[in-house]
Amino acid sequence: MKNDLLKHFAETFGDGEDAKVYFAPGRVNLIGEHTDYNGGHVFPCALTIGTYGVARKRKDRKLRFYSMNFDKLGITESELGDLKPYKEAGWTNYPKGVMWAFEMKGMQIPAGLDLLLYGNIPNGSGLSSSASVEVLTGYILKDFFGFDVSNQDLALIGQYAENHFNKVNCGIMDQFAIAMGRKDHAIFLDTADLSYEYAPIVLEGAKIVIASSNKKRGLGDSKYNERRSECETALAELQTVADIRSLGDLDEAAFESYQNVIKDDIRRKRAKHAVYENRRTIRAVEALKKNELVLFGELMNASHRSLRDDYEVTGIELDTLVEEAWKVDGVIGSRMTGAGFGGCTVSIVKEEAINNFIEKVGEAYREKIGYCADFYVVEIGDGPQVL
Ligand code: GLA
Predict the structure, then answer these.
(1) How much distance in Å is there from the Cα of 337 to the middle of ligand 1?
(2) Distance, CA 32 to ligand 1 centroid (Å)?
(3) DSSP, residue by residue, 179-214
């Protein structure tokens, strides 16, 4: 892989001298969905699939970008003096956003670079390819120019770029999961204060299977922002009777006793999801620590029902994948993962049941939805690295 990438870099940019090869993973969230902007917990892990980058420093301030995934676009040129988002700049707005974010935080980038990317995260699957590119870029800048930033800082810089340069109002989960990834571990992160703990994922005889709905996200971003603001309004209503900083500060009983101050039924459902999902995530990690995988799976299933009925971010494609998965023997748990409205599901499936799972769920999906889903048996990998 490394030599192939270096060869591609040399072919693209004339020569491969002084180029280095890097990798940053994608991520999947096991449980704790739409809690990261509500001061709650999440439980994601980094994957062994992700984004490869070949980069080298330049003597001038030029930036040259090339993606093997979008090879038809050819080389996109820019320069450090023009770190602004342009619609026609496509994917290069992600690395440029991170360079801009470094400069906004007082770290001037002294020289331009040539960057070639290759990603093996399935396209549009919701496994955070953009956060992967962001963390990768930050990691390269740190390595090239010696900036004094930790991997956690790289996550925050990536999120800052996503929020303020690319104007996507995401939480911290994706960039954190990627920057802090650890092989065979998921990260139990409290988004209220960024305290975290690694939990080993020992699935004895089972694997994580991702099913991509292949549905384009479409209106996803605007719906995402709508959910965020519904939660913010519900929080403001709850704060008139409870001394809380976020929905993550409430447990189920407290929520039930205060919920009447939320004036609107829909908002009440949204807030209920955020509160219950947070508590479910805490319980799921406890279950995992006690090796109670069946309970962990049940909590994954409950998470999906809540995302379907109360948060309403699933849709027929994700519901079909999950509900068909629940029918298959050997499925320990299954739920949508990520923002929703398309993207993918995550299931824990006993090894001997995986082929049957892919066949049954795949068939039912094609019949009902009219096109195919894709399935990936994944492994949990490390964070960003030099190869
Ligand atoms: C997207 C966002 C994350 C998080 C999830 C939902 O992946 O980027 O910050 O909010 O949706 O859990």
Answers:
(1) 9
(2) 10
(3) HT-BTTEEEEEETTTTEEEEEE---TTEEEEEEE--
